[in-house]
Amino acid sequence: MRNHRITTFSDLLYPNGTLMQKGYSTKAVMRYNRKHIKAPPWRIKEWDFYQVSNDDYCLQLTIGHASYAGEVSAMLIDLNEKKTYAAKEIIALPFNRLHMPASAEHGDLAVRRKTIDMQFEVYRGGRRLRCRTRDPKTFPRMDVDIELSQPDLESMVIATPFDEDPRYFYYNHKINCMPASGTVAFGDRTIAFEPETAFGLLDWGRGVWPFSHEWVWGSGSAWIGGKRFGFNIGFGFGNTEAATENMLFYDGNAHKLNEVYVDLAAGGYMSPKKITSDDGRFEMDFEPIYDRYTETKMLFVDNRCHQIFGRFNGKAVLDDGTVIDVKDMSGFVEHAVHHW
């Protein structure tokens, strides 16, 4: 049966740099060690991406690199006014100088640059995100202090190979449904995130990727019936014969899905979409609200991404057959084409 679940603790990579196990898990049972990678150093990619959102605002904090180019960025998206405010500093040739943690479940990360400071703290049961920008060319400046509660033990973890080279791999950990509290001081405004309406998301990625590829990724978290519900969907991240990264989360438990389909570009990115699954367990109408389109060009990097924010309506079916009715749930689906 497809979707092999990894339950045995092991290193992520064999001594020759290939994946020791392929598939998914709901906890980080494989140990990532950068020294075990046998691909050229400029092919290594590592990032920590946090998103905190409610129905009105979305905050995104990123520390990451593609070895020959790195980025520290803070982005605040006003979903009502359909405006994006960003502060970013590009780092040339960072390679391993950012000291990215070897696990999404422990290890702090801090970067201090000329125009932006950012710090991610991980502790038992939660996380703290702090950022301060001071670029005189960027107005308004941002001062961020957010705490995420992490009550769930289960999340989406996947180890995926690429067909282009047996030494290429993608080790990804995504955590949904983290109630968020804190503030973003933004110019003369202070935006508050409350755990009753705001959730945090972590996208933690490590790997060796081919230079060109594209993907579709979608995510959402909400309170439904007094319980935390969320989903992670996506495809295009390498060879997914062993497992997809499609998963539901409900009241702290993960529920595995197989294939999920959507064509974001068809009819234009802002046209309504239908998202379907091969087993009928994820059937959604998606109504776009805002297309946050970004381009990044530096050295060899040429990345483009449509992140479409909107509302989901439909149903999700848990492993035991329980149907979750989804109504006007906030979330996003993105289509990225990257050359990096």
TrEMBL record:
InterPro entries: DUF2804. This is DUF2804 domain-containing protein. It comes from the Bacteria. PANTHER family: DUF2804 DOMAIN-CONTAINING PROTEIN, DUF2804 DOMAIN-CONTAINING PROTEIN-RELATED. The lineage of its organism: Bacteria, Bacillati, Bacillota, Bacilli, Bacillales. Pfam families: DUF2804.
